[in-house]
Structures are given as structure tokens and as C-alpha cells.
Amino acid sequence: MPPDELTAARQDLTADCGRCVGLCCVVPAFAASADFAIDKPAGTPCVNLLPDSRCGVHGQLRERGFPGCVVFDCLGAGQRVTQDVFGGADWRDDPATASAMSAVFPVMRQLTELLWHLREARTLVAPGPLRDEVEQRLAAVEALAAGRADELAALDAGAHRREVGDLLGRVSEAVRRDVPGRARDRRGADLVGAALRGAALRGASLRGAYLIGADLRGADLRRADLLGADLRAADLRGADLTGALFLTQPQLTAAVGDPSTSLPAALERPGHWAPAPGARRR
Ligand code: SF4
What we know:
Blueprint: H1 3-9, H2 67-71, H3 77-85, H4 95-124, H5 129-145, H6 149-153, H7 157-176, H8 249-254
Iron/sulfur cluster (SF4) binds next to loops.
């Protein structure tokens, strides 16, 4: 499947805030930190949330101390919960609806992430037993995501994550097996702040690696497996992520990059990344 077809196949995994009731601004708890300017208990609306479910500081999130909101992406969970599960209801309607939505939203967010990865996995393997397994798992997760509120609230999403994670690991291994000059795997490695400028990481598994603040300028990350890698503030300027596996838009948005960063074809360049040297900021 060409990259533009993968983008189209993920269309329903794109947040549509106009069809949501601000669930990401209500359901999670925030702890005052570099990501959020305030403490907020779970299940209570953020002080910046407007009555029409828009954010009152949307255009100034970083300046106002909410960069964590820029990075967050529900991958379409918000509109699924609001429209498909609750038929357009609002958590403001009554406490029971608010409580039920709070229970369902985190589960749906996990399912939409699994769908994101499984739809990519389907494009990576040739027809055969492994591809069949991906297709079956994808159909199963789609069915779970279409469940009723009580079914979703009772779902053990963690168990499904583990099973899908195992399958994605086998897909990853099959894809990376023949990568020329494949670098050694650093799965789950603590690489916080690591000096990896120009590092040869082609085809490596960096699954679940902690790359917070790592210097990855000019690194070769082609066909690297980045499932769940923590890329917050990692410097990807000039890095080559062509064909990188299982990377999500929120991971990318949390990193630092510029126009010289080469991206997997189905991902978008974050709008806040630095412009090319000499380019004028608008
Ligand atoms: S600052 Fe805006 S985007 Fe962030 S939680 Fe509050 S209302 Fe939502």
C-alpha cells in the first residue's frame, strides 16, 4: 500500500475536535510540570476549556505553559466516544454520562493507537500467514472499538496491547531482518540525553527506548522500529527516519526537528519545528 493510501486508511484515526466534547481536557489528570501549568484532577474540566468545548488558549499553548496539550493526540478516540458510543451526548449532561465517558475514553484511546499500528503493519508484510494474522487482529480490534460503553469500560485494554505488541514485534523482525548494515537493537534502552549525533541506527529496534532529550542530529534511523520510544525533546534535526516503523504523530510532535529531518511518508512535519536555516519565520 503506498504511503498516501496508508494516510487515507488512517483518516478516521485523526482527531476531529469539532465532533468531540473536549474529553482530553476533562478525563485525564494533569500534574503541574513542564508539560502542564496546572494541577488538574481526573474527570474535571481544565480551567481553559470553553463551554463549546474549544480551548481558550489554543493559539498560545506553549507560551501559557501547556506544551503537553500540543503533543497529545487522541488518534480519533474523542469523536468515537462522543458520537459512536454516546450518540452525541455531552459529559455536561449529567454525572452518570460524565462518569461513563471518563471510563471509556482511556480505553478507546488505547484501541485507536492499536488500530494505528495494525493498519501500518498490514502494509509492511507480504500476503501469507503473518499478514493473515495482522488482518485478523485488526478486525478484532475494530470490533472491540465498536463496542457499547459498558463493554468498553470493562475491557482489559492492557491485555490487548500486549498481544498486539507481540504481533507487531514479529512484523518488525520480518521487515528489519534484511536491512543492509542493520544496527544492533537497543530495545527499552535508557538513552536519555544520549549523544547519538550521526549514529548509525538503521534497522535497529528502539522499541520502548528512552530517548528523552537525546542528540540524534543526523542519525540514520531508516527502518528503525520506534514503537513506544520516548522522543520528548529528542533532537532529530537532519536525522533520516525514512521508513521508520510504528512511529506516531504525537511521538514526532514531542521531538525537535527541522526541514532537514526526513520523515516516514505517512507522517506530517510538526508545524512548530524549526524552519530551514535562513528561512524567515512567519
Ligand atoms: S489548555 Fe486547552 S487543550 Fe490543554 S487541557 Fe486545557 S482546554 Fe484542553
